């Protein structure tokens, strides 16, 4: 009976929390003018169902990589709407944010293995689309390895932001590391104001944005609970962090969300949280000049653990999980026209 009452109480708290955090100062969820809905896309062939994966554009093609189990790369040609298969990675890889450099896709800050004590990869993994080939890159210093981290490229450097050391168990870190892509050397930079994992970073006007995510804590049975509202920003030139004002907090805190840059706007899309069993379908946009969020669009199907790619003024997303946790895994592709049609 005590356990039952505890579940009811937690449910009520979660519902109340959802109402509070989804409101801005005038009591309504931030909305954009003409909020659009994403459209399911009929494609030739389907990709593998997967989540905790990555989706990125490189050379006019989209690449769906990684996820639970060892799955081949799925390659999408947006000009023909066709999915084809690429090679399999050398091992299981998941919980990472891919970056593109020199026509190659780099994977750092990834995990491998089974929940809840996944292991962080010890090296950068590289996929070369032109050759459909996987290779291992530089070693990540043993004392700085983690998964579920944000990863961005700027000025010939790869920046690795925050993450978690022990799978979903514990070991959240606020670390910021910089990898010189030419000299193949690592450098420690100032820690972020807070730790977070299960998020994606973004670079806008020489600043790194860390929004969304959580502190995954299977050790305390709080895997989905400890979401992060605050947005932290690192100015690359001055090497200083700041936290945006409370009024710029993410409207619906969630993890497993994915980020995309659209002009000077930071998009935070999808995700999972204790607020609902289904994955989130909201795509929020932060105007980095005003610090205000708006509801930019909604997915046809909520999802987490994937990404967004763009081509000819359209956005695309695919796969991910449609519910909190690992199921159901999706193989659907959706698109959004930035022209409003």
From TrEMBL:
Alphabetic keyword roster: Isomerase, Signal
Lineage top rank: taxon: Bacteria
Signal sequence interval, chain numbering: 1-27
Molecular function as annotated in GO: isomerase activity
Keyword Isomerase part of the UniProt annotation: yes
Name of the top EC class for this enzyme: isomerase
Classification via Gene3D superfamilies: Kelch-type beta propeller
Record EC number: 5.1.3.24
InterPro entries: Kelch-typ_b-propeller
Name assigned to this protein: N-acetylneuraminate epimerase
Species whose genome carries this gene: Rubripirellula obstinata
